[in-house]
Design goal:
The protein is mainly α and 128 residues long. The protein contains six helices and no strands. Helix 1 runs antiparallel to helix 5 and helix 3 runs antiparallel to helix 4.
Length: 128
Amino acid sequence: MNRPFSVTLLAILAGLAGISGVLDVLRLLHILPMAQLGELNFYGFSLFGAIFAAIVAAIWFWAMIRIWNLDPQGWMFVVVIAIVYLIFDVVALIAGTPWQSVSLSVILSALALLLGLLPSTKAAFGQR
């Protein structure tokens, strides 16, 4: 299987975004000390935010596996989940979360979206 470098990098970014989602779950459930990564607010209801973050992390990990196998569904999910995650990061910012708390997920999502939309990456998945 001939996997372009951009696809390998996209799979790595998806994995890192999944790890970031797991860290968000731990912060929202107050298991991980807030002082290390910054406070994370989701309209004051941590359980709902933790459930959502866990679902998103699982999707990132699933997409990473699909991308590694050059499955076009993985490419589509990375593009869609990156957009959705960026939207929810903006919502978290509006809800009072400091920039330093969401900056990692914003950067990873933006990089994954940009890399996923590169012509060479799209071509590897049979997209135009």
